[in-house]
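Progress note, sequence design subtask.
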């Protein structure tokens, strides 16, 4: 059964880091966004199931980073 929150886009802008028009097919959920923002800011957060997609934003990698 489909959920109304499935298959939604996240739009990100980060001048000099994210190429204009860049797209990613990697699936992510809200707690991945928390892990991404924590990695970006260096914040210490409890370990969750979130996987940071920060490495995929500048298109340096197609792999996500497990939160440690």
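Output:
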């Amino acid at each position: 059964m489909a959920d109304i929150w499935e298959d939604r886009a996240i739009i990100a802008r980060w001048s000099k880091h994210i190429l204009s028009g860049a797209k990613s097919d990697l699936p992510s959920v809200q707690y991945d966004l928390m892990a991404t923002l924590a990695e970006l800011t260096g914040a210490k957060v409890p370990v969750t199931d979130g996987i940071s997609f920060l490495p995929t934003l500048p298109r340096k990698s197609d792999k996500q980073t497990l939160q440690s």
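The first strand starts at residue 51 and ends at 52. Work on this subtask will continue into the next period as scheduled.
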